[in-house]
Amino acid sequence: MCGIAGIHAYLDVAPAVDRGELERMNRRMAARGPDGSGDWLSPDGRVGFTHRRLAIIDLSEAGAQPMHSADGMLSITFNGEIYNYRELRAELQAKGYAFRSGSDTEVLLQLYADRGTAMVEQLRGMFTFGLWDARQRLLVLARDPLGIKPLYYADDGWTLRFASQAKALLAGGAVSRDPDPAGIVGFHLFGSVPEPFTVWQGIRAVPAGTVVTIDASGPSAPQRYYDVASSLALRADKADGDRADARLQMGAAVRDSVRHHLVADVPVAVFLSAGLDSGALLGTMAELGARDILAVTLAFEEFKGAPLDEAPLAAEVAARYGARHIVRTVDRAEFERDLPAILDAMDLPSVDGINTWFVAKAAHEAGIKVALSGLGADECFGGYPSFVDVPRSVHFLRPFHFLPGVGALARRLLTAGIGAGLGIHPKAAGLLQYGGDWAGAYLLRRSVYMPWELDDLLDPAVREEGLRRLAPLSGIAAALQAGRRLGDFDRVAALETSLYMRNQLLRDADWAGMAHAIEIRVPYVDPFFLAALPAGRVLASVDAKAAIADIPDPPLPAASRARRKTGFVTPVGRWIAEAAGAPPGDVSFSTASRAWALRVWQAGWAGPASA
Amino acid sequence: MSTRVLALVSDCYGVGGGIARYNQDLFEALAEGDADIVILPRLGNVDGSTLPKGIRQLPAVLSRPLFSLIALWTAWRLRPVDIVFCGHPFMAPVAWMVARFAGARYWVQAHGTDIWGPRPAIVRKAIGAADMATAVSRATRHSLLGWVDLAPERARVLPDTVRDMFAPGPRSDALAGRLQLGPGPILLTVGRLAASERYKGHEQIFAALPAVRARFPTLVHAVAGDGDDRARLERRARELVPDPAAVRFLGFVPDADLLDLYRLADLYVMPSTQEGFGIVYLEAAACGLRVVGGKGGGSGDAIPDGRVGVTVDPADTAALAEAIIGQLARGKADPTAVEPYRRAHFAPAARRLLARLKARPRRMKGES
Q1: Between B274 and which of B28, B155, B199, B288 could a Cys-Cys bridge form, CB atoms 3.0 to 4.6 Å apart?
Q2: For the segment B192-241, what is each residue's pLDDT rounded down to a tens digit?
Q3: How does DSSP classify residue A596?
Q4: How confident is the model at residue A611 (pLDDT cuts 50, 70, 90)?
């Protein structure tokens, strides 16, 4: 896991690659890779790569990057891990390919030589890379199927630049900081910036599950090789077994995924909350024979002795599986001390990620380099309330969706009522207008602000242009395009996996983890794992989220089942609201995230002052 | 099989000016490949003169409604048309319609001031529907992407090309004798003196001249070009520069003399802020002149690095004077810096764009 960047001056008139710019991009990503740093310039000066290394597999110098093929015709800068690299390596060796190192990076080079860009379909893992094919004079940028690792690019029409962080592109000094209204509106609507947009006009994300190739005429459109909705549709073809079969399939899928995610030449730890997802990971690790597992739990001073305190139950789970348990307590003072560093590390504006920041910080203090996280379990097992709310909303309110004007009128009346002190959440006013179709109901469920509320927050021109360019409802609907009808469970799973998990959770896990040089591995976020699970309708019928508790042997303690909750809970919302002047006490999460969203945006993103 | 291109342009053969010349360079590069190009212009007639192989130009049609009808008729007559090329963003709605009608791929070309800043919604939609948009500079592309909803990879840059006639050479004694510009050094500015093009920065040069002449007392600023703003500029020159001999208005300079004029001068100065590209900078540099351009617009693309010259903020008179003095001290421009703009690079780049466009599927009838 590392930080990568590169520059390709593809048009003849473009000046050759500036090594200084590469160095500036590299320096901005220093935290991502404390174990090494390297760069490479092609002999003609038209391509340059740089790399920050966090050594996990093949710790020797043979694994250093950028790496080149033996004939020098292929060069790569790679970020991530390929969990099936040993299998792929064996296949390639059988075909006669010779290897010089034990690294997964070299497997990528040889696999490309063998299969071209179609190689990405063989990879199990999290990855982004830039690969230069000197023979074809082609730059290949690729990103993993679900978007675990980020990759951004900026094309000015002469030169293309890419990096693991948008802020690294800006730090190079040659990329425009002009704001992109689509990304700005996207952040205010969703609390995270929906890809491929960023808050800068000149910078785009390489979408998850796509490859972008750059030849002498510039970059191609992103070519998709994986999408969630289609793969869930394919999975729906599986025959339904009985409940016991379904549980067996789930258990086998989790064990297979955890086994793959333990591939490393350094110890692998786990982020442990009191929830079922991370507990099941720890239990499975132990079952697979991992010893002396370090488990890290975050605790908050405010929650000590209260039911929200995760530490006691986490300790029970850790003890059950023989893990060494580290409990790290965070208080408001530490949060305020870290806030400038948090905002600096945050690559794109986000309303989340603080919890990951602190648990990664704790892991780093404990000498950990790699940790498994339960991120993604709610998306695949249906753990969110949205799996119930969104289909219900669509089924009940669909008639209003086909009555033009009624929803909008109701929204205006209710908004006026809310303004006059009607004690309901501002978003509720949009129920009739948005709740009757999938995209609208999902927006209503996940949004921080709704489109009609942006008038008070953003310049009208930015709001109008941003909404037009972003087209939020079409963007959401696109996540459901599978070429055929999906069931309710799969629809919500596709939306949560392609939107919330990708744009919010995974992006936050990257910047907050990498700021502390922690590689966060996510066994529940894996296309091979998703495909091995039973069909969505089966998962819904067996209450898959609860069934996770029985996956490890021995199963999770009864107290864990009794405490069904998702992931870590932090008092950050309260800290923020209190810092913004709210009276101390309980602040609802939704209101708190609005305050936090505004605080984050005020840190300054677009324009010359931000970096 | 050749690629049939219907080009709807404001002007091409039979007319002077930067856009006409760009179109000629582009079409000739494409025709050298396998393209068969039919041009429908709004201005300019070829009157029987021979055009390069693979290029035909129809009689010009000024009237907009008639132009649209004839464009549709031509697309029908030439069917199948592979590509509809639109040479000016204002014609994009017509070109879009013709491309849909013909089931052809659709290419929009943007130069500079024609797309700076938002245009009517129909123009925005019509450009946004393009299979490919090309801009002459990075700045023009950036500006276009700022208001048109176009996927960035569809917006490409194809810079102007410098014709091979522009190259270093001996000074023309005849021209020197005729102009009588004195011992120099000579600053040169070439461009229309139009009230609509005051961004070219003549006045800013006049303002900087006293400081420059303090260092070079015999320096002369030669202003080539004519236009409706000339009288006003002459007056401004007299106000800003005490010595009347320091600024010489040469009037319109025919193409035949332009090359000799570049070779006679010591530095090309035009601190323009709104050049779409600024081909004159490159022509000057190709003749060996260093150049001082203006920050803003596409000038940075014609002056990519210090081998050719510098760009300055024209409002900063002291910086402009300093840039002129500094560039005069550095002598000649490095001619290798101009090489990537030569035809040998331009033509393959143009043909690569055509190939890229052809790789896209033909649009179905009625598809936007």
Answers
A1: B199
A2: 899 988 888 999 999 999 999 999 999 999 999 999 999 999 999 999 99
A3: H
A4: very low
A364 lies within 8 A of chain B by CB = no
Place of tokens 């091995």: A532
Comparing B3-161+343-359 with B173-340, is the CATH topology the same?
yes
| Residues in B touching A182 (Cβ below 8 Å) | none
What's chain B's Rg over C-alpha atoms? 22
Alpha-carbon distance B162 to nearest alpha carbon in chain A (angstroms): 12
Q: What is the mean pLDDT of residues A238-247?
A: 89
Higher-confidence residue of B311 and A590: namely B311
The answer to whether the peptide bond before residue A554 is cis (omega within 30 degrees of 0) is yes
Q: Do the beta carbons of residue B213 and residue B178 sit within 8 Å?
A: no
What's the N-to-C CA distance of chain B in angstroms? 26
The CATH number of B3-161+343-359 is which of 3.40.50.2300, 3.40.50.2000, 3.40.30.10, 3.40.109.10? Answer: 3.40.50.2000
Taking an 8 Å cut-off on Cβ atoms, the answer to whether A201 and B305 are in contact is: no
Residue type for position A148 = I
> Mean pLDDT highest for which of A501-505, B254-258, B306-310?
A501-505
- Average pLDDT of span A303-324: 91
Q: How does pLDDT run across A115-137, given as a tens digit for each residue?
A: 999 999 999 999 999 999 999 99
Name the superfamily (CATH) of residues A2-225: Aminohydrolase, N-terminal nucleophile (Ntn) domain (3.60.20.10)
Residues of B in contact with A12 (CB under 8 A): 340, 345, 349
pLDDT, tens digit (0-9, with 9 covering 90-100), for A267-287: 999 999 988 999 999 999 999
Nearest to B356 among A12, A212, A217 (CB): A217
Which two tokens mark B297?
Answer: 């617009």
For A230-239, write each residue's pLDDT tens digit.
999 999 998 8
Residue A193 has phi, psi (to 5 degrees) of -90, 120
Contacts of A203 in chain B (CB under 8 A): none
Contact assignment for A221 to B159 by CB distance below 8 Å: no
A285 in Cβ contact with A348 (< 8 Å): no
| Residues of B with Cβ-Cβ distance to A469 under 8 angstroms | 149
CB contact under 8 A, A12 and B345: yes
* Beta strand segments in B127-252, E: 132-135, 155-157, 186-190, 220-224, 247-251
Does the N-terminal peptide bond of residue A608 adopt cis geometry, omega within 30 degrees of 0?
A: no
Q: Give the nearest chain B residue to A467 (CA atoms).
A: B149
Contact B141 A156 (CB under 8 A): yes
Cβ–Cβ below 8 Å for A218 and B341:
no
Is A55 or A442 the better-scoring residue by pLDDT? A442
The pair of structure tokens assigned to B27 is: 């079409």
Nearest residue, CB atoms, B152 vs list A155, A216, A468? A155
* Domain boundaries A229-383+492-602, corresponding CATH code: 3.40.50.620
Q: B173-340: CATH homologous superfamily?
A: Glycogen Phosphorylase B; (3.40.50.2000)
Chain B CB within 8 Å of residue A218 CB: yes
A444 within 8 A of A430, measured Cβ to Cβ: yes
For A:411-470, CB contacts with B below 8 A are 468-469
Q: Where do the domains of chain B lie?
A: 3-161+343-359, 173-340
Q: What is the pLDDT of residue A212?
A: 98
Nearest to A230 by CA among A490, A500, A539, A526: A490
- How is chain A split into domains, by residue range? 2-225, 229-383+492-602, 386-489
Q: Write the ipTM.
A: 0.90
